[in-house]
Specification:
- The chain folds into three domains: 13-147, Rossmann fold, CATH 3.40.50; 165-307, Reverse transcriptase/Diguanylate cyclase domain (Alpha-Beta Plaits); 316-573, Alpha-Beta Barrel (TIM Barrel), CATH 3.20.20.450.
- The strands form three sheets. The chain has an eight-stranded mixed β-barrel with strand order 12-13-15-16-17-18-19-20, surrounded by four helices. A six-stranded mixed beta sheet has the order 6-8-9-7-10-11, with helices on both faces.
- It is of the alpha/beta class.
- The N and C termini lie far apart (111 Å).
- It contains 21 helices and 21 strands.
- The chain binds ligand C2E and calcium ion (2 copies).
- Residues 474-475, 495, 531 line the site of one calcium ion.
């Protein structure tokens, strides 16, 4: 062993305890190149050395005068501070019994007189090497133990004590990959409106719910699966499919949470991903389960849903939409199609509605149903809407120049626009830029926008009308407002949701309601447009009950701007 290699740092010190001078001289010769040698003639001297300087190995003659080698071994063993010191016993050849006794008393090895230099060196070296290994092993064990303890806390979620996200990923992968006999599922769980619970109650209450839920999940997966907390009120479980009975599971969960006695409806919803490929990264499995969950969120009838590939395709489509949207706006890939709105009484086009289309270079014409909700999610809708409004203003100006008069066109105003302070200024800016008058540009605002945020919206809409814009309430009757609200709402036109027209023939209720809404709107001096009229019999029915304006495939589908202009030109001629 070279000095710089030893784990004790520095040159190793060897204590030779022997009272035969000639041996000492010999041993010194054998070892002095590698060790720093200290000689002690008896036990007393040996103890003094041990007490005053560090010793890494001891060569001990068994037949010493005074306290002999055996007694010294016993003493060393009894003393904690010396019990680990490696001792090589020195005896005479042929005295195997003594050597054996020394080993029993804790000597690491022995050498025999007459000492052979190579054998002696090798034995001492081996003893030290063994010691070093032991030391390393002990140290490694200690380190592992420490790491394990550290891991236990690093692996755990502080609040619930179940695994945290990273630990869950690791453990779940481990379980699934080891057990090829079972099909596993990942269950992603989330409380409906947890934020409301935190707002309504104290934080402790929220924490209590999470802890209780964590406890229930842990009990549910038991030894056969694993569960973890992802973040906030999101939990995951991984367990064999055969062990999962969702209805029983949720019933138990509801009962457990209910037993806390919190006066609020706290319900978990779940998305389930059946694992086909156990080598798929667990975070991706969780994403898929979460995707299934998001599909049912807000749908109070369904508590859980299974993932299927169409969800992933949908997500990829959405990602594509987000990736391409900026460029598409720059490159003017968005365009308007216009759908005429007819007056039944006057038998002519009263106005048109502009509907956005995405002319995608690869995917062709994409309908707004595919991207509007994505843009409403990420805020891009505000910029797209403004772009569309400007396109419409351009078209209105073209009408004015070409025909000397203007048929109004309505645009859709997504509810996100109402968070922009400069909304009205922007619209007025367009009106000015294209030398129009506000009545030419009709504004469609959905009933949903009104009910979501009436306090913020009503004054803005009033301001629109004060400037001379006409405001249409889109999708009226799609389920959010009460009739009572109508009397306070500043709107000029009600656009009755498509579902009414489509159910006229099949539902008594729909036709009675339609009749009622028409009468009501007359009383409130609002105009009414019925959307989604597709058949002659719908038109006839509407005529009978006093419907005035209709929009739908029966008269015309949405068309390109150029075509719409031609249609207007025709109408004007007659
Ligand atoms: P919406 O505002 O209710 O527009 C009417 C939708 O009904 C249009 O779908 C139209 O093509 C369709 N439609 C018209 N007549 C009939 C019919 O007889 N039968 C059936 N089945 N459908 C009919 P589109 O163009 O796919 O637009 C869907 C929705 O996307 C719109 O519903 C609107 O909410 C939104 N949208 C369209 N363009 C814009 C826009 O520029 N900005 C914003 N924020 N939203 C837009
Ligand atoms: Ca509309
Ligand atoms: Ca509508």
């Amino acid at each position: 062993m070279r000095d710089e290699e030893n784990i004790f740092g520095g040159r190793l010190r060897m204590l030779i305890v022997d009272d035969i001078d000639i041996d000492d001289i010999l041993l010194r010769q054998f070892f002095q190149d590698e060790y720093e040698i200290v000689i002690a003639k008896d036990s007393k001297e040996a103890v003094t050395v041990l007490e005053t300087s560090p010793i890494h190995i001891m060569l001990l003659a068994l037949n010493l005068s005074g306290m002999d080698g055996f007694e010294i071994l016993s003493m060393l063993k009894r003393q904690d501070r010396w019990s680990a010191l490696p001792v090589v016993a020195m005896t005479v050849a042929g005295d195997g019994d003594k050597a054996a006794r020394a080993i029993e008393l804790g000597a690491a090895d022995y050498i025999t007189r007459p000492f052979h230099p190579v054998v002696s060196r090798a034995r001492v070296k081996n003893v030290l090497a063994r010691r070093e290994n032991d030391w390393y092993r002990a140290e490694r064990l200690a380190r592992e133990q420490q790491l394990m303890e550290m891991h236990q806390s690093l692996d755990r979620d502080n609040l619930t004590g179940i695994y945290n996200r990273e630990a869950f990923y690791r453990r779940a992968a481990n379980i699934m990959q080891k057990d090829s006999g079972n099909e596993y599922v990942i269950v992603y769980l989330d409380i409906s409106c947890f934020k409301a619970i935190n707002d309504l109650f104290r934080m402790d209450t929220g924490n209590l719910i999470l802890k209780t839920a964590g406890y229930y999940f842990q009990a549910s997966v038991g030894e056969i699966g694993v569960c973890g907390r992802m973040e906030a009120d999101h939990f995951v479980m991984c367990l064999p499919k055969a062990a999962l009975d969702m209805d029983t599971f949720l019933t138990g969960l509801d009962a457990t949470v209910e037993s806390l006695g919190i006066s609020h409806n706290i319900q978990f919803y779940a998305g389930i991903y059946p694992v086909h490929d156990v080598y798929l990264p667990v975070d991706q499995m969780c994403d898929r389960a979460n995707l299934a969950l998001r599909r049912i969120k807000g749908n109070y009838m369904t508590r859980y849903a299974y993932y299927d590939d169409s969800m992933r395709e949908q997500m990829l489509r959405e990602q594509m939409i987000v990736r391409d949207m900026e460029f598409a706006l720059q490159a003017k890939q968005f365009c308007i199609h216009l759908q005429p709105i007819y007056s039944l009484k006057e038998d002519r086009i009263m106005r048109g509605e502009a509907l956005v289309r995405w002319n995608h270079p690869v995917r062709g014409l994409i309908p707004p149903t595919e991207f509007i909700s994505v843009f409403e999610h990420n805020g891009f809708i505000v910029r797209l809407d403004r772009f569309i409004w400007e396109e419409v203003c351009r078209l209105l100006k073209e009408q004015k120049e070409r025909f000397g008069k203007v048929t109004p066109v309505s645009v859709n105003i997504s509810r996100l626009n109402f968070y922009s302070a400069d909304l009205l200024d922007f619209l007025m800016g367009l009106i000015g830029k294209y030398e129009l008058e506000p009545w030419m540009l009709n504004l469609e605002i959905t009933e949903r926008a009104y009910t979501d945020n009436p306090h913020q919206l009503i004054p803005v809409v009033k301001a629109f009308r004060d400037k001379g814009f006409r405001v249409l309430m889109d999708d009226f009757g799609s389920g959010y407002s009460s009739l009572n609200m109508l009397k306070n709402l500043p709107v000029d036109v009600l656009k009755i949701d498509m579902s009414f027209a489509q159910e006229l023939e099949t539902s008594e209720r729909a036709s009675s309601l339609m009749k009622f809404i028409l009468e009501l709107s007359k009383a409130l001096q609002m105009e009414v447009v019925v959307e989604g009229v597709e058949t002659k019999s719908q038109v006839e029915f509407l005529e009978r009950i006093g419907g005035e304006e209709i929009q739908g495939y029966y008269y015309s589908k949405p068309m390109e701007a150029k075509q719409f202009m031609e249609l207007l030109a025709e109408t004007i001629k007659h």
